[in-house]
Amino acid sequence: GNDTLTLENRMLCVDGYPFKELAEKFGTPLYVISEEQIKINYRKYIEAFKRYEKETKKNFILAYAYKANSNLAVTKLLAKLGSGADVVSGGELYIAKLSGVPSDRIVFNGNCKTEKEIIMGIEAGIRAFNVDSISELLLIEKLSKDYGEANVAFRINPDVDPKTHPKIATGLKKSKFGMNKEVAKKAIKMALKMKNINFVGLHCHIGSQITDLSPFIEATKKMMEFILELKREGIEVEDLNLGGGLGIPYYKDKKIPTIEDYANALIDTILSYDIHPNLILEPGRSIVATAGYLLGKVIHRKDMWVMIDAGMNDLIRPAIYDAYHHIENAVLKEEKEVVNVAGGLCESSDVFGREREICKPEVGDVLVIFDAGAYGISMANNYNARPKPRMIMTSKRGVFIIREREEYSDLISKDIIPPHLL
Ligand code: LLP
């Protein structure tokens, strides 16, 4: 998946820039994201789903999941490529608007949308609120009286086992997301009677980092069956949103389906029915993960341990999901060593990888943590009072700082000392 990665004079490079030099010039810890790789990943989806548009005469909309990486340079790039946005908060909606995403390509997910967020969505005239409960529908109806019409789709819980990490499975019966078909049907009938509410479609999302096509096919079938069932009752579904995209290989799963395989599986499943809605997908990880890298400098060595200046506050995935991220020395060497790579936080889970064979990491070397473009900076935090890292974007046009490194003063900028403690 890392098409823009090359090796030149034993130095790992992205878009032709050696990581070692980027680290020296911009400091560490450092997030690097490749504009060219994002473009490649985005275009794979667009190319693969052209067939859907051609054969059904309906639209395919890619609504990039902002939660994967909502840095403004990344969202602007995707907006310029024509991407829509899947937002899950007022903050993400604000960023989508700022990035110039057209309203009819914005969908709003989440199981706990607040009044303020719903008002923002109504005022922006978004394509759909993916409504998670009847309680939410009633709140949208109430607000639509004062703020204007709202488009709603309902999030169905299809009860499909996605065979992924339990913390990122979302479409099982026991999950907090969505509603079952019976409740959804009731909600749809309620919505159809509401004055300022337009019922536009159905949504489901079964989980993330899914690398097997069968759960996607199963969910698509269940959704199509439901669409037919509604049709028999005279209810038309314009949009079918199938949620997040395909997982990525993370270097250890070498043989996973391609975006084209994934697209064909979904398209063939839908084409096997004689009714075809507009198709919306909300991929996040598969658009940005392989475009991003986290660079950390080796600060100390102790036995098997390699301590780097990046930590779990910058990239929390290994700590909370035991996620595998490939690690290599930015400069390849003859001599290899089996090591544990750790950050410097006071938490024993702050370990990026155990027993990894990498080119001998010495103090001062730069290590490259792969596939960090999704759920990296967007899940970063300031634990242990660590400023969030700088981010740069590499592209054919050059290298650009896209997020400044936080300062110590940023860490306390929202804190207030009560007068008696001054
Ligand atoms: N749509 C909905 C409703 C979602 O909940 C998600 C992800 C997506 C789309 C995007 O899915 P993707 O294409 O990225 O698989 N922090 C975790 C991932 C959590 C994903 C949550 N929902 C991680 O780092 O693995």
Overall mean confidence score, pLDDT:
97
Beta-sheet strand percentage? 15-25%
CATH superfamily of the largest domain: Alanine racemase
**CATH fold call of the largest domain:** TIM Barrel
Beginning-to-end CA distance, first to last residue: 54 Å
Description:
There is one protein chain. With 422 residues, the chain is of the alpha/beta class. The protein has 2 domains: 5-34 and 289-411, Lyase, Ornithine Decarboxylase, Chain A, domain 1, CATH 2.40.37.10; 36-286, TIM Barrel, CATH 3.20.20.10. The chain contains 12 helices and 20 strands. It has helices at residues 19-26, 35-56, 72-81, 90-98, 115-124, 134-147, 181-193, 213-232, 259-271, 285-288, 317-321, 408-411; strands spanning 5-8, 11-14, 17-18, 30-34, 60-65, 84-87, 106-108, 128-131, 150-155, 197-203, 239-241, 278-281, 292-302, 305-308, 327-329, 336-342, 351-359, 366-369, 390-395, 398-403. Strands 4, 13, 14, 15, 16, 17, 18, 19 and 20 form a 9-stranded mixed β-sheet that branches. A hairpin with an 8-residue loop joins strand 16 (336-342) and strand 17 (351-359). Helix 2 (35-56) runs parallel beside helix 3 and helix 2 packs parallel to helix 9. The relative contact order is 0.16. It binds ligand LLP. Ligand LLP binds at residues 65, 68, 86, 109, 168, 170, 205, 208-209, 243-245, 282-286, 317, 321, 375.
